[in-house]
Amino acid sequence: MSTQPTVDYDSLAKQNGAISGPQVDYDALARQHGATSSESAHNSPDPNAAVISAYHPTWVDRLRDALPIVDRIQTGLSGPATSNLGALAKPLPGMSDERAVAPERLMTASEQQAHPIATGVGEFSGGMTTPGNLLMMGMSGGLGGIRGVAGKVIPRVASGVLSAQTLRGVYDEVPDFRAAIDRGDASEAQRIFTHIALGTAMAAFGIQHAATGQPSELGTSGVGQKTYDTYRQAGEQFSKLRNRGDTLNTISEGATGLYNSIRQSLLTHQEVLKDDGVKTIQAAIDADKGALMNSNRGSIPTAKVVAEAAKVLDATDYQMKPGERTLFSRIVNQPEMTLEEAKLMRTAVGRLAFGRSSVTPEAKAVFTTAYNELGEGMKGRIQELQGTTRPYEHYNNQLRASFELNQGIAGEMTENLQGQDRHAAIAKMSKFANANLSEIQEQMQKIGLAKESADLAKAQKYARSLLGAHDVANGKYMSGVYRLFMQNPKQAWPGIAVMMAAHGMGIPFPGPQIAGAMAAAGNIGLRARSEAGRIGQELKTNLPDEYFRTRTQAEAPETFTYNNPDEGWTPSPTSPSGDITPAEKAKQINRVRRIKR
Prior knowledge:
By secondary structure, the protein is an all-alpha fold. The chain is about 65% helix and about 0% strand. The protein contains 26 helices and 4 strands. It is elongated.
C-alpha cells in the first residue's frame, strides 16, 4: 500500500509570504499544490491522494528554525570556495532571512498570535543580527579603541548611520500599524508597535552617542567610571525598583520616609535654637532662684501683661476658647513669677502666638501682646541681676527664630503625617523641592548643625527625583516633544535630535514629532525610575522603619483570661501527700500561658 504524501501547510504559507496562520487559507494553498482536504482524501478511491495534516514542530525543530545562520553556514561550506564568506555575509538565492538568529520562531504561530509583544521583541532583537547591523554596531563600539581622530569619529558616524536606518525602519512600519488598527487586529498592532517603540528608543541613544561621543548615562557614576559599569549599576537599580513594585504606592512610601527625615531635621533645629537661647540666661535664672530662696515670691510682676492683653481683648471683642482661657488664667492668677516661671510661660504663650494651629487672628494678637510683655519683664530682671541685657537679647532672638520655623515651608514640613494617607507626602514634597532653604541652612550651620544643613540640601534633590518618578508613573510626560524639552532640557534633548534626524530623512509630519516625543519621554522616564529606585534603596537602608508609616501598626488579636473578682478563692486540690495534683498543675500552667499571651 502506497504512503499518502503529507502537506506541511505552515511551510507552504511561509513560501507564499504569510506572517501568521490566521491570515492564510491553508486549504486553498494545499489544493493549489494538488492536495485534497483530509476528509475527502479518506473517502477518495485514489490511494495516492494527498492528505492535509497539522504540523507540530518539536523544540528541536523550533530551535533549528530560530537559527537562520546555520543555513548560511551549511550553504557556504557546501558551495564553491568563493561563496563561503558570501553565504555568511548575505543570504544566497533562495535564502530569505538575513538574520543570524530569529528568536520569535521559538514560538508557534498560535503562540505568536497570543503574545504579540514578546513576538515583536524577538523580531526586533533578531533584526539587529543582520550582517549590516552587526557591522554598524561593531564600528560604533568596537572601533573606539583606535587611537587618534579615527577612533573618535568613526564610532559616532556609525551610530548616526545605524540610528538613521532604525528610524527609517520605524517610519516604514507606521502604515502597517495604522492598517492593523483600522481592521481591528489588536495582536498585529501590538507586535508592530513594539517594533516602533524599541526602534525609536534605540535610535535616540544612538543619536546621543553620535552627537556627544558618550553613551547615555542612566545612573550616578564616579569620574572615570566605565560606561559598562554605569549601565550595569543603573540596570541593577531599576531592577530592584521594579521588583519592589514600581508603582505610585512605592514612590509615595519613599516620599513618606524622606518627609519624616526632613521633619526630624527641622524639629532638631528648632529645639537646638531654644536650648541655645535658654543656656545664655541660665546663669540669671540660677541667680534669681538664689535671691528668692525661702521668700515664696516672684520677681517679675504680671499685672502689665494682663492689662495689655485685656486691652486687645476689649478692642476685638474676642471670646477665648476653653484652652486659651485656661492658659491666660494662669497668668491672671499668678501676680508674680520667678524668672524661670516667666521663661516657661513665655514659651507656652509663644506656641499660640506663632504656631500653625487653628488659632484665630484675634487670639494670636492677644497672646503676641502677652508674649512681648513677659519678655520685657524678663529683660528688666536679667539686667537687674547681671547688669546687661545681652543674654536676654540672644535668648529672645533664638526663641523667636525657633518659632518662625513654624511658618512657611519649614512649618509645613514639620506637620505630622500620622493618620493621613501615605500619598499626602507627595503634595508637601512638591512645595519643598523648589523652596529656597538658604536662610534655614545658614541658621543650622551657625549653631553647629552642619550635617543637618547638608542633609536638607540632599533631601531637596531627592524630593525632585521622587516627584519626577511620580510624574512619570502618572503619565505627565506623554506630551509633545517641544513641551518636554522646555520642561526638562537635560533629559529631553535626545528627542529633539531624533526629530531633526527624522526631518532630515524626509519623513513627513507628524512622524518626526511623534518619534521625538517618544524618545524624549522614554529617556526622561528611564532616568527618573532609575534614580527613584536608587533613592528608595538608600532611604530604606538608612532610615527607621517607622519613618515610612503614617498609621500605627496594628497587633494580632490576643486573648487574656482573668479570674472573676466576685468569686471567692478556692484552694487548689492537693494530693494526699499535700502536693498539687498533676491535673491542677497543668491547668495553672495553661492559665499562666494565656495571661502571658
